[in-house]
Amino acid sequence: MPEMGWNQVIVYAAVAVALLLVGARAIRGEGATQSSFASASDGGSAVGSSFSISGSGGEVVVDVTGAVRDPGVYRMPAGSRVNDAVARAGGAAPGAELEAINLAARLADGQQVVVPRRAPGGASTAGVASADEGPISLGTATVEQLEEIEGIGPVTAGDIIEFRDEHGGLSSVDQLDQVPGIGPATMDSLRSRLQP
Hints:
It is a single chain. By secondary structure, the chain is an alpha/beta fold. Among the domains are: 36 residues; 68 residues, Photosystem II 12 kDa extrinsic protein (DNA polymerase, domain 1). It has 5 helices and 5 strands. The strands form 2 sheets. The protein has a 3-stranded mixed β-sheet with strand order 2-1-3, covered by helices on one side. The chain has a two-stranded parallel ribbon with strand order 4-5. Strand 1 and strand 2 form a beta hairpin. It is elongated, with a radius of gyration of 24 Å.
């Protein structure tokens, strides 16, 4: 067997080191991917656990309020979900009614995420808001809340919720003019009663 020269040994060693580095990077990347999916496959306990999202460029700024441990305004990677925003705000506080919001909805820039509290007797405080309490959050509005707005019936309210969910949330009330059945007069009512 012919002997290898120092040049060949150095080349083989460099190739071996490069392969080890690539393998280590692949294993580290695989672990991060698994941990980001682990919290989502947990069922409802994903809220409050850590999360990992690889940024695909850009950020969104959201206001997380209501029944969370640390309400506030947070910068989130583009493509984040409501569940991620709740986790970033310290997770759900005792008495939170997470079933009342869509945790899988994509966050939109400027969106307010309101986590309702369970009222005494088991009712949600999200559905108890009256018309006098100010604008309703478009990101968490229910069909019942939308029906309270002048010119919105059950069909249009359902269409608005469907449009919001299809687009992963809305950053502006003006986007609702794309929903069939909403004319200029209805848009005026929506602008005065809703906020992004």
